Amino acid sequence: MLLSHMAKHDPDLSLLFHALSDPTRRAMLERLACGPAAVTELAGPSGLKLPTILRHLSVLEQAGLIHSAKDGRIRSCRLNPQALDPMKGWLDTQRAQWEARLDRLDDYVTKLMTARMEKDTAP
Amino acid sequence: MKDYPADRTLLIRRVIAAPVDTIWGAWLNPESLPKWWGPDGFSCRTKRIDLRQGGEWVFDMIAPDGTVFPNHHRYTLVRPQTRIEYTLLWGEDGPKHADAWVDFEPEGQGTQVTLGMVMVTVEEYRNAKGFGAEALGLQTLGKLAAIIGAA
Lengths: 123, 151
Description:
Chain B: InterPro entries: ASHA1/2-like_C, START-like_dom_sf. Chain A is mainly alpha-helical.
């Protein structure tokens, strides 16, 4: 059943939507799409203070969108593009539901037209 | 990559072997719309239905197991036999969760029906009138996904 499939993805989707809802976090993802980067490098263009940057990165990491690792004193981050898959799954579910809905509309109007034709050709 | 629109957009195109006026008649008709809206095994319990520009459809989708999914569609544009635009709200007067549109175009003896839908982001919920950030907790969004599934 489609709905149970959706329910399975709910926590992931919530975290993803939340993570993607912020322009600063989207800018960070955009930067990381070009390759891994150190936290200080991510902070650079934003003009934000380090604690704020770390909070945003933590949201991205919780959503699975990035991985981070510490090497000595430097923490670096990289993108995990597979994290967007649940969102794709959600849209696929929507697509399946609309396909089914259009099937039913098709059936409905076909019956309607058949009924009209029978009426028209009735003696 | 700025706003991930491709990840939030759905586009479906279908040619149905019936003239536009017949399909429009099945869609913009309070008697017939709930009959095919589905999903299969679900029933629609309509509270209010007014299928015209500025009108709305407030209804519950009832799953086979009795679970109720409240829905509210607001019709922002109704151009006869051409286009419908509507906003999907999470329950009656709830936060908006998507914008949808349907285009009808004659194609041969039939009609090409194109459905488009764009899911809103949390950011847009925050801007939605009457809903503060506190109403937008993760639990709410979790439920939302289920609601959209039945929308």
